[in-house]
Design goal:
The complex is a heterodimer. Chain A is of the alpha/beta class. Chain A is built from nine helices and ten strands. Classes of the chains: A alpha/beta, B mainly alpha. At the A-B interface, helix 2 and helix 3 of A face helix 8, helix 9, helix 10, helix 11 and helix 16 of B.
């Protein structure tokens, strides 16, 4: 290992208590700028809650979260986005009646003040950024159709594109391959890998073939606690992880075969 | 520019509208003028409900604020306030002196400014208080309905200051000119027509601006917008404020045309009727709001004069039909490629698929 760069995001001893139900217990996590982290865990492990906590949708009962060396635990959601964290939701969160391009332009808006919206002109740099992302997510031919008419996989890519278009330094992607076939899943993995370096990415997913295609550092969450961290191979080999999570996934594979 | 049939239709409609006073008779003109005044309010509903996804069942309140703001001036015009003169209904109610808040309305410019600012400002303030708490959807609709009820109740109960159940009526002049003559009716009609056209083009521009895109984005996914770093609240508040101001202008013009403003025009039932106009006309297309208002109101005029008891049933049936079979309203039928229509078609075809399985 080389010298460890300063983390872009640090969660320190974060606990989330929903009226007695501990969704997260003493979770500490740090992410490196431009790097990939994969978060796995069985249903109800607290993966989405962890994302919610980072973006301010859920407030931690205790502990703190720092982003780029500043505490963001109590900031408003929009403020957290402005600092450079953006999240893709589990169900595709595209804006259905807007065109693909409009979706990207809403995300790419640099000056987000409402009183600056009384214009019909889109700044050239925002259009250029949106077009670049459009190519990256492979939807150039679809730019003028409304998002509701996209195929499911395309919606997922569009939302990843929107998250990227905000220019965030940390992207949280919650189940980006949910409902996708194997081919689209591999394409999504390629797309995510192409984002690294410029963006740090935290991916949540169940699909082990997807996790292996990404081949990043994995954090396993179980019952609101971090069970294990390591490379995909290490996690694969870990008996404890297999017991709580991979065993079940293997069963699914066996059932599918 | 390529010729499009819709521009020709638009030009014909504009010409007819502008020359209506010499084309149709006085009675028809007075109806058309009233309904056009209402259509200014309807365009505001199109903005908030159709494009912003904010259903208000209390637009009558803003309509009433505009109407009363102007009517208060009309009641004072020609009176010698220094002499202790008061509007007729105050004398009958036994009020000893003109209430202080009535005085500024003696100035016509103050009154006209209030027509826009009071309903617009109140709508913006009210919606901000609600939306910043992240209350929306059905809850917002219910709150606005309660507001309409409270407003009409307040007007009725404060007989001495508001004219009570009868409202404010019996005006004769504005800016020193007679407003009851046929000639004046034509002038008032033309003012109304110009304001309808102005509101139409203002909103048309607003809807293609980034504001319009942000408003639709907020309607489509308020949380998505929020987590893209935008605060959705101002877009909704501004849209609602504009709708409030338009309702106020519509109310003032209607008051001029009808010669009366009263609680019966601003309460719960009229507020719901206003939503029906837009549902029938098409809530995502600007001209649909105007067409729906004219159509429903002319129908109301015909039906309620022939069979008065039937109208409310007709209105209910119309609303159900529009919502079930014409989600894009009448205007939606003329725009097969519209987003609304396509989304709807997808939902319908999916439902068919799932029943087939």
């Amino acid at each position: 290992m080389n010298a460890i760069p300063a983390p872009i995001l640090m969660m320190e001893h974060v606990t989330v208590d929903f009226d007695g139900f501990k969704a997260l217990t003493d979770v500490s996590l740090s992410l490196t700028p431009g790097d990939l982290r994969i978060l796995i865990g069985p249903n109800g492990a607290g993966k989405s809650t962890l994302c919610d906590t980072i973006i301010g949708r859920v407030r931690p009962t205790s502990g703190r979260i720092t982003f780029k060396d500043q505490v963001i635990t109590d900031l408003a959601e929009q403020e957290i986005v402005k600092r450079g964290i953006c999240r893709k939701f589990q169900t595709p969160g595209v804006l259905p009646t807007l065109t693909v391009m409009e979706n990207l332009l809403v995300a790419a808006r640099k000056n987000r003040a409402w009183w600056r919206s009384f214009t019909t002109k889109t700044p050239d740099d925002e259009t250029a950024a949106a077009e670049k992302i459009l190519a990256q997510i492979g939807l150039e031919a679809r730019s003028d159709i409304i998002a509701a008419d996209l195929a499911h996989g395309e919606k997922q890519w569009l939302e990843i594109g929107m998250v990227v278009a905000t220019g965030a330094d940390l992207l949280l992607l919650d189940e980006p391959t949910a409902g996708m076939g194997p081919q689209d899943t591999q394409r999504t993995a390629q797309l995510i890998l192409s984002l690294l370096g410029r963006h740090a990415v935290l991916v949540i997913d169940h699909d082990m073939s997807f996790v292996e295609a990404l081949n990043g550092y994995v954090t396993v969450l179980h019952q609101g606690q971090i069970l294990k961290e390591g490379t995909v191979a290490e996690i694969r080999a870990d008996p404890e992880v297999t017991a709580v999570y991979l065993g079940r996934a293997d069963d699914d594979d066996a059932a599918a075969a | 520019m390529r010729f499009k049939p819709k521009y020709a239709v638009g030009a014909i409609v504009l010409l007819f509208g502008a020359f209506a006073p010499v084309i149709i008779n006085g009675y028809e003109l007075s109806l058309l003028g009233r309904f056009l005044a209402l259509s200014i309010l309807a365009m505001g509903i199109m903005l908030t409900w159709g494009e912003g996804g904010i259903l208000s069942l209390g637009q009558g309140v803003f309509f009433g604020l505009g109407g009363y703001a102007l009517a208060m001036h009309l009641k004072l015009e020609g009176l010698n306030l220094a002499n202790g003169d008061m509007p007729d209904f105050m004398v009958w109610s036994g009020v000893s002196a003109l209430p202080a808040f009535w005085y500024p309305f003696a100035n016509p410019y103050f009154s006209l400014a209030c027509v826009v600012i009071v309903p617009g400002g109140f709508a913006a303030l009210f919606s901000w208080l609600v939306f910043r708490r992240r209350v929306g959807g059905v809850y917002f609709a219910l709150i606005t309905q309660a507001l309409a009820l409270a407003f009409s109740t307040l007007l009725i109960s404060q007989q001495a200051y508001t004219g009570g159940f009868n409202g404010l009526t019996d005006y004769s002049t504005m800016f020193g000119r007679d407003i009851t003559s046929t000639g004046a009716a034509k002038v008032i009609y033309e003012i109304t027509f110009v304001l309808v056209v102005a509101a139409f083009f203002l909103l048309r521009w607003l809807l293609v601006s980034r504001f319009g895109t942000m408003l639709r984005a907020t309607r489509d996914g308020e949380n998505r917008v929020r987590f893209l770093g935008h605060n959705p609240v101002p877009y909704k508040v501004v849209a609602f404020g504009i709708a409030g101001a338009l309702a106020g202008i519509g109310g003032a013009l209607f008051t001029l045309h009808a010669g009366v403003v009263s609680p019966a025009l601003v309460g719960v039932v009229p507020s719901i009727e206003m939503v029906v106009w837009v549902a029938v006309g098409g809530r995502n297309i600007l001209w649909g709001a105007i067409a729906g208002t004219l159509l429903v109101n002319f129908a109301k005029d015909q039906i309620s004069s022939a069979l008065p008891s039937l109208w409310l049933y007709g209105l209910g049936a119309l609303f159900i039909l529009a919502v079930s079979f014409l989600p894009g309203g009448i205007a939606g039928m003329f725009k097969p490629g519209s987003g609304e229509e396509r989304v709807m078609r997808r939902i319908l075809s999916r439902r068919k698929l799932s029943t087939a399985e």
